[in-house]
């Protein structure tokens, strides 16, 4: 309230000298000031209501409803069609989800995926950003556009195109591998993980490279010149000056990548169509989809969704906290 | 000398793509012994460019082939030129359902993102420019919303939508996409940076109402931020496959990516549909690439805004 009087129509004193003659008329009158304040409050409500109504309908209500659903279980009464009855189970669905080896395994898959994908993706993005940033690179603009291009492709279409590039018969890659006499089955039980990682890497290396490159461009030229004057070569400057200076961006990207990884769906869903050994519940989102739409166990799916939301929320919270700390320092 | 290490194709492409000079940095004279390291650096960059561009190149080549050539000819060589034939088959398939999918995609992504951006910008702007009781609490909700990715609310949304009978409608996909807490957050930041309080005072002084001030004074000043938020929201909705897959059964309502997925799954029974899936993917991607190339400036500012967040 106190702050609102600061923002109300009284013009800043500095501008009083150049203000038009009409100026003194309005703000002096307290009634006018009060009605202006009321107008502003009305306007604030007008501007904010659409968002908050939608937020309540499409974010809060579903979570609350899922919370309610997760407390019940539907049991088929054995007569088939429509013969289900709903009974209260308390936290039974949460216990079931947490105890389900398939759900646990899906998080294990994502952990292994992260262990390989994150170093590869961040390493490549960082290396490419440093190379494009180096004085040796030509056609920098072209490379940036080429690297960023995959990000313009919708995730599902990217996964589909790669699925075809993994398919013997139409894939140029499989041809090359066969001509080299190497055996690599993109849909094999062990290889399929790399096939999924490759789709993610293709989509994200360029995107993150551009972010790192923007960070590198923001390093003051004097700092780099000082390093050169001190006799540091290009490689040493890169490792000991440039990388430390964009450290916070790199760590943030790493954390955002983790938040993205636990939502992984499109690529494993498509690769799994051919690599059936992966299982239809390879990732947590695939598990939820499978429980809901094949198992029709909505209570369990709701509980698993809320658990995933909790994990995602905590992860994002950590990311935001760390991000803010860096922004302030 | 300097372009020697880049292949002519890359150099030509770079020349045609860049209107501005390669980079803002001044070029310093280089010593000749760096020639080899220059070659190595650019060779690595070219190899990676081949990796990023290869799938799209394959898609273009594959889209010119008929079913027989897809499997019979070398993947990177041309067979009979069937591009137009494939295209007309794609749009004729199932009474032109693909065109409908494209139209749905436009509805979900372009219209949806536009509405979502207007809603987010208005809200973020109000958070920045107006004072009222409970503002911090309310903004806390926005921040909480920011923590919960839309993927994890997809199933809860489906459950709620099926309870109220909205599953399998345009609204089931459109309404959730309108909620963009990150957009509100960004809009507040942009409003702090781009719209000085003095300008609002001046506008009010001139007798403009709050709504008019927003539309004709503040919104133009927020244009770059508006574009950035629009692009974020656009990317999110064109990547949205998970919740559309849950919400929609009726293929008349599918966006292009869901339609392509359905088509792709039926390829196992009907292999002759292969060329349609391939050209359909190309048709879905090309407008996005054009949009992306022409809006580059905004992409970049959006990226850095995202990184700063």
- The CATH superfamily label of the domain at 93-308 in chain B reads MetI-like
The level of helicity of chain A is: over 70%
Fraction of residues in H or I helices of chain B: over 70%
- How many domains would you count in the coordinates of chain A? 2
What is the CATH top level name of the largest domain in chain A? Mainly Alpha
**Which structural class is indicated by helix and strand composition of chain A?**
mainly alpha
Discrete helix count of chain B: 16
What is the CATH fold-level name of the largest domain in chain A?
MetI-like fold
Overall pLDDT score of chain B: 83
Radius of gyration of chain B: 24 Å
CATH architecture verdict of the domain at 93-308 in chain B: Orthogonal Bundle
Shape of chain A: flat
| Alpha-carbon distance between the two ends of chain B | 42 Å
CATH structural fold name of the domain at 93-308 in chain B:
MetI-like fold
Please provide the ordered H/E string of secondary-structure elements of chain A. Answer: HHHEEHHHHHHHHHHHH
Q: What's the story with the biggest beta sheet of chain B?
A: none
Percent of residues in beta strands of chain A: under 5%
